[in-house]
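Hi all, long-time lurker, first post. I run a small reading group and we've been trying to get comfortable going from sequence to structure in the token notation. Rather than ask abstract questions, I figured I'd post a concrete chain and ask someone more experienced to write out its structure so we can walk through it together at our next meeting. Sequence below, copied exactly:
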Amino acid sequence: MFALQSNNGLQQTTSYKVVLPFYVFAALSFLTATVLLLIHTGISHQHYFQPYTLAITHLMALGWGTTIILGASHQLLPVLIEGKLSSNMLAYLTFGFTASGIPLLAISFYFFDTGWLMKTGAILINLGVISYLTNVISSIYESKRHDVHAWYMAAASIWLFSTTFFGLLLVFNFSANVLPQNSVSYLSLHAHLGIIGWFLMLITGVASRLIPMFLISKYTNNKNLLWIFILINSSLISFILFKVFATGGLFYYIPLVLAFSAVVLFGSYCRNAYRVRIRKAVDEQMKMSLLSVWQMLMPLVTLIVVMWFLPGDRYPNLALLYGFCIFFGWITAIIFGMTFKTLPFIVWNRVYHNRAHKGKTPAPKELFNEKVFNAMGLAYLTGFILFVTGIILLNNILLKTGAAALLVSAILYVYNVAVTLFHQPKEL
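-- Answer (accepted) --
Happy to help. Here is the structure in token form:
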């Protein structure tokens, strides 16, 4: 979800000064979330609507996933539209507002302070998202080419604003009757606006370009991508309608089937790109990204189990499993993989762009520690599997061990990001 490649490598499109702060903030948010997860593994035994769960969820959704996507898309969008970013100032405002609002919101959830702290955080986040949405739409409008991937970005940015604005209403609804019902009644709607409309839409659209690119595969299928686009939007719109009109029972299988179909089509797209790849050797970063494609199925399988086989009120831990598989599974895996396919190039361009003609320079992949990356991946997979098993079995030892392993992976991730960011030029 980050940058595109020309024949000679990644193409620099936006100043590193715009992009890099997002990477730093996201890394620190992920580290903070894993620390809180280790401290509060007891949330697996409780209802999902409680302060610690809300704080960790919003750190992962906003501080980790959304922040790094916001930064990376400032790098990617100009390449997709063969134009330029409409405004660097709006990009800086996006970071400034969101980086100020997310900590306030997370802290207010942690202590469940529904007063000015939570409201201020929600307002700042919305100002940041409005800045981002304006930048995306104006950049596309001013461009000469409207690639199908740009449609994904435009739609995803609109759904993101819908998510954060609805979240703002829920925040004010805690202390005033802004909505007809209490805020808990709307949580599933708020969550799926973000999960399907923002994350699934954006990641699917952009990864469908990046995965073939990094595999050096010429595979493309715009018809397939158009169907995925339609299915994702249809899934979310139908879910919204069923929630608004309080339609229950079997109707909810419609958006589930639509979303499942979109994921299967996307998986098929990635599989075809993998089969006709020119580069036969697949590096560890791409293996992690491809793993995330498989992890997209886990939340859907969890929903099917809950809806078909189990009474949901008797197994509240499965709601936590659903969210955990999304934020610590699918989204984290693809960020892990793509960070070290793109961040090293951005830093390389900053350090060596004006020095490349003077002699041999290191390859971008040499700017981070590959052994640390492999250790990070092992710790992550171990932690993810153990924590998922711990949620299912409600086993505290598995939960603590899994959370500790995830914390190790976060520390290694932050370390490798720092190694990359602080890379010093070699003498030429």
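A couple of things your group might point at:
The chain is about 75% helix and 0% strand.
The CA atoms of residues 217 and 277 lie 4 Å apart.
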